[in-house]
Amino acid sequence: MGKLIVTEFMTLDGVGQGPGGPEEDEEGRFIHGGWQAPTLSAETGAAIFEQARSMDALLLGRRTYDIFADYWPKAPAEIPFTALINGVPRYVASSTLSGPLSWAGASVLPGDLATAVSELKQRHENIHVIGSLNLLQSLLQLGLVDQLRLWQHPVLLGSGKKVFGAGTAPAALRLSHAVSYESGVVQFTYDALGVPPKYGDMAKGEEENRRMMESRRLIGE
């Protein structure tokens, strides 16, 4: 069974909209497009590519597909990502696209999302999702995400579409990797545990601790 691995670039306040350029995604009159560019470096670029090398299929939402399809087929060959992204099967989760797509090797994911992604996991070892914020919410709701790779940038925007916006499904995660870079970017890798979060009561915990300490005092520990 393959894994679904999600990579997201986000600000400190959780915005994932339009990281690549001013006109990438202006929905909602977003004026901060291109916020990621100033913190890109050779170091982070190499790390992003190294993580992507395991990709043997790419799953995208409609908007991200349009952005990628406009750029990557004609991207410079010297960019490492060019051969990688153009060389793997690409699937689009969309209810509005149909028929053959102009980007060779890309196809619309058939049927309902849960069934289609489960079938992809049978055929591919590492299915990557990049961006695709609306699709991410659906994948999380269906419990289909196996790993989250979050690249958090030292920027506050105050507006824009959030990576984890309203409607995000509650879920417990395990941090498996974390690294910081000189640019201030921090990369976190979380594995999905497939279970809801645990809850507690800190006030009750404090009271129980107080009673335990009092008991130890009384018996002379």
TrEMBL record:
Name by which UniProt lists this protein: Dihydrofolate reductase family protein
TM stretches of this protein: none
Domain of life: Bacteria
Molecular-function annotations in GO: 5-amino-6-(5-phosphoribosylamino)uracil reductase activity
Protein source organism: Kineosporia babensis
Sequence ranges assigned to domain Bacterial bifunctional deaminase-reductase C-terminal in this UniProt record: 3-186
GO BP, sorted A to Z: riboflavin biosynthetic process
